[in-house]
Amino acid sequence: MKYVSPVLNEKPAVFQPFLEIGGQLGQTMRVSNVTDFTTEQGAFSADGFRQLYRTTTTHLSRPFLDRIYTLWSNTIPTIRPIPGIQWALSIQPIPLLITSRSTQLGGNSLGLSSLPASSPPLINILLTGTWNNTADDVLLQQTAVKLFNEIEYEAKVKNKPSLYHPYKYLNYADGGQDVIQGYGVESVRRLREVSRRVDPRGVFQRQVVGGFKLWKGREGEEGEEGVSEE
């Protein structure tokens, strides 16, 4: 949790319900800078392991959450023998309070400000995997792709109305996922318009290695799909 407004102490009142939860194993809440918090978070990711991220977004549905868990569980027999494997699926809510507030302030470039008030809230689905050896890269990448193909297929086809949403959180995306197009046609048009205006030579599209480009496959190449060395 983050609190960015000025505070007189290290325990803002809005956090009190969380601080009062019993049985806490520990907490490191404090007033500090981004560098300090980044260093703390980085300590949880040891160097030298192979790593994979993949993400997608759907609308919230309790039955579909159960189905997502089942699909993830079905991958365990495949990945269990991999040396050093850690294979975690996380569900993170995107509350309507956030998306509706964005609409009131003029929208955003992520395509999330167009949700109707009657729409179920969104959830971000994140798979993280770490393992020891490059020899297992292909198997784990293929397993991740298959899992998310199944999640997205069932969200689109097996749920009426569809639970699927094209938004993909950039920081969690695999290099082969089409993040920018998931923002929607109007957002992509506006982002490209701004890019042409402030970066007419395409420095950020042509000369910056990796990442997700506004003109995929034309102005810049995507990075190596999925797998990276920390």
Summary tags:
alpha+beta; 8 helices; 5 strands; disordered C terminus
What overall geometry do the principal axes of the alpha carbons give? globular
Strand content: 5-15%
Helix content: 25-40%
Summing up helix and strand content along with how strands pair, one would put the structural category as alpha+beta
The N- and C-terminal alpha carbons lie at a distance of: 25 Å
Q: What can be said about the biggest beta sheet?
A: 5 strands, antiparallel
Could you name the ranges where pLDDT drops below 50 across 5 or more consecutive residues? 217-230
Could you give the order of the helices and strands? Answer: HHEHHEHEHEHHE
Question: What is the count of DSSP helices, taking H or I runs of 4+ residues?
Answer: 8
Strand count:
5
Radius of gyration: 20 Å
Q: Could you outline the blueprint of secondary structure elements for this entry?
A:
Layout: H1 16-19, H2 34-42, E1 50-59, H3 62-73, H4 76-79, E2 86-94, H5 96-104, E3 122-131, H6 137-157, E4 164-165, H7 185-198, H8 203-207, E5 227-229
Antiparallel strand pairs: 1-3, 1-4, 1-5, 2-3
Helix pairs in contact: 3-6
Describe this entry's structure for a reader.
- It is globular and about 50 Å long.
- It contains 8 helices and 5 strands, in the order ααβααβαβαβααβ.
- Strands 1, 2, 3, 4 and 5 form a 5-stranded antiparallel sheet that branches.
- With 230 residues, it is of the alpha+beta class.
Can I get a quick summary?
The protein has 230 residues and is an alpha+beta fold. It has helices spanning 16-19, 34-42, 62-73, 76-79, 96-104, 137-157, 185-198, 203-207; strands at residues 50-59, 86-94, 122-131, 164-165, 227-229.
